[in-house]
Amino acid sequence: RSKAKLMSEDQIKVTFADVAGCDEAKEEVGELVEFLRDPGKFQKLGGKIPRGVLMVGPPGTGK
Fold this sequence. Notes:
The structure is a single chain. This protein is mainly alpha-helical. The chain is 33% helix and 0% strand. The chain has two helices and no strands. It has helices at residues 23-37, 39-44. The protein is extended and about 55 Å long. The two termini are 30 Å apart. The model has no long low-confidence stretch (mean pLDDT 80).
């Protein structure tokens, strides 16, 4: 019998405070998330919408 549990999106509450790692990288990802939540805010300031995001690193690092 598996101990795995099925969870819905509204049950998962992970914040950047839960993530360990390079503070500079966390800050950049946080800015990206903020942009994705409200792109109009950045467009008003003259920001351009990125075509994509490339996350690199060794396997198993949780990119």
